Amino acid sequence: MRPAMDIMCKLFEQETGIQVEMNYNDSGAIITAIETTGKGDACIVHDPFPADMEKKGWVDRAYTVATLTPVIAVKKGNPKAIHSLTDLLRPDVRVGLTDKLYSTGGQVAASLFQQAGIAEGMDAKEKDIIRTRGSGELANAVSIGTLDAALAWNAVVFSRKDTLEAIPIQTGHMPTTKVVFLTLKRSANAEAVRKFAALANSARGREIFLKLGFSAPPAAVQAPLDAEVIIKNTVY
Description:
By secondary structure, this protein is an alpha/beta fold. It has helices spanning about 1-15, 25-35, 50-55, 105-115, 120-125, 135-145, 155-160, 190-200, 205-210, and strands at about 40-45, 60-70, 70-75, 95-100, 130, 150-155, 165, 175-185. The strands form two sheets. Strands 5-4-6-3-7 form a five-stranded mixed β-sheet. It has a three-stranded antiparallel β-sheet with strand order 1-8-2. The model is unreliable at about 220-235 (pLDDT under 50).
């Protein structure tokens, strides 16, 4: 999410004069930092973390600004001719997956393998699968050739489009992983934070995510906004 938020912060600062201080980490680490420091005006995380924050009573408003879609990351040119999940079973394909216990992507992968009818085959191949906590590490491994394929988020692969390409996954039901911008009740800057949320959740803000390889958010989950930010014709 960092490239999208870097653009968003720059736009917001240019057009409101309000400076944004961003701290980047994975979603779990962000929640831990908010809990231990007691600080934070807003955050952007993906499922299932927004629901956890809601349960803790931290959330003022929630805006789904994008979604993440799993794809098969392969090296540019697809040298191993990988076209479907079934190809991951091939003995000549070195596969990387995120951890089923510590990552949303790992849980999504398990669901996709069940749908594709290859769950048992992937379990049998488990000893040869490289597991990490984040799909960025796997994408880097495919880029340098230590892996042939990995399941990663579409935005992760897009950010490495010079070395990787994304193979779409054909399935009856694609699990949706929402990217959610949350304003926090503990914020001492509620007015400014809601203006920033208005930008992130505007058509212009969502377009930034789309141009960086994310999928569109479900229209039905958009929260109403009570603050508007005038966005100028800024080139990004």
